[in-house]
Write a structure and sequence with these properties.
The chain is about 40% helix and about 20% strand. It is of the alpha+beta class and about 350 residues long. The two termini are about 35 Å apart. It is an enzyme of class 6 (ligase).
Length: about 350
């Protein structure tokens, strides 16, 4: 399978480079960028097949994908400069330029901090054999709450906490419904992450927004233990925050997991000694996790006597805020170029 992916990758690179050799307009250049590097581009689609690659081959394949992305990005920039030069020459030949006017700079956007953080999370978990699965943002109440062991009288279902379309349809408050849908399909074992936008009736401030993003993970298999959960999340924390990062699990309660925990990481600014960044505690909370509740498995058609598993959920904005030391989440959505061009 790795040879097949390598051949597909070489084909994508060859096709992109050949197209860039003859591209002559900014619109055509942007079309190539979107088709190859976009959210639904060829490289992103290729990454979904990483789950079928042997574990020992995944780092090598991941490196090949990164090298291909870098090669195409470099050629895109070169083609952009070439097109700009050609257009400038045509313009100078066709008209007189008033050199007293300020120049107009053609600015091409780049990845948002959330996108950068998401791509890094996906790279980490795809490298561990997970697949990336997305689902609907407008969801049935049954999948958003009932199948996750959240009863009708649970506080999370209050209209002050949840955006209801009607009594049966809501804007999803988490990406866990994607996991319930995947479990219902019955294709076991499962190793998946489900990134996406979620909605809660929160006031806008430095740490809250009515619309934000989550990345939730699920593993269902035979003989899964809490040790597997800890090992997975420790590897994730070390890869995204640094090899010196330590983790700590604190007991907590979530309706869909039992036992449940919240995970803290040692402050990567002070090494756990205590500083302004971690509010003097030396630890920073980043996610919730736990073993999938047996009743959740039953409601999704899985025998809890034969299968078990674990789940976790992390706020994408929280990772971006921590990783890039941003102290106000509103900065991510105000579209201020002075802020965004730093990334």
């Amino acid at each position: 399978m790795s040879d097949s992916i390598k051949e597909k990758l070489e084909g994508i690179v060859s096709k992109a480079l050949n197209s860039l050799e003859i591209v002559s307009t900014p619109d055509a250049l942007n079309e190539i960028r979107v088709n190859v590097l976009g959210k639904k581009g060829e490289l992103k689609e290729l990454m979904k097949s990483m789950k079928d690659v042997a574990p020992e081959d995944r780092p090598k394949v991941g490196q090949l994908v990164n090298e291909a992305r870098d090669q195409i990005t470099e050629k895109l920039e070169a083609a952009k400069q070439k097109i700009e030069m050609q257009q400038m020459e045509l313009k100078m030949a066709a008209e007189t330029i008033d050199v007293t006017l300020p120049a107009k700079k053609n600015v091409i956007g780049h990845r948002h901090p959330n996108t950068i953080a998401l791509e890094e999370l996906e790279r980490i978990f795809v490298g561990m054999g997970y697949e990336v699965i997305e689902g609907p943002e407008v969801e049935w109440d049954e999948y958003n709450f009932t199948k996750l062991n959240i009863p009708p009288n649970h506080p999370a279902k209050d209209e002050q906490d949840t955006f209801y379309i009607n009594k049966d349809i809501v804007l999803r408050t988490q990406t866990s419904p994607v996991q319930a849908r995947r479990m219902e399909e019955g294709n076991l074992p499962i190793r998946m992450i489900s990134p996406g936008r979620v909605f809660r009736s929160d006031e806008v401030d430095a740490t809250h927004s009515p619309s934000f993003h989550q990345v939730e993970g699920l593993v269902i298999d035979k003989n899964i233990t809490f040790a597997d959960l800890k090992g997975t999340l420790e590897m994730f924390a070390k890869q995204i925050f640094g090899e010196e990062t330590k983790t700590k699990f604190r007991p907590h309660h979530f309706p869909f997991t039992e036992p449940s925990a919240e995970m803290d990481v040692s402050c990567f600014k002070c090494g756990g000694k205590g500083c302004r960044f971690c509010k003097g505690e030396g630890w920073i909370e980043i996610l919730g996790c736990g073993m999938v509740h047996p009743h959740v498995l039953e409601m999704c058609g899985i025998d809890p006597e034969e299968y078990n598993g674990f789940a976790f959920g992390v706020g994408l904005e929280r990772i971006a805020l921590l990783k890039y030391e941003i102290d106000d989440m509103r900065l991510l959505y105000e579209n201020d170029e002075r802020f965004l061009k730093q990334f």
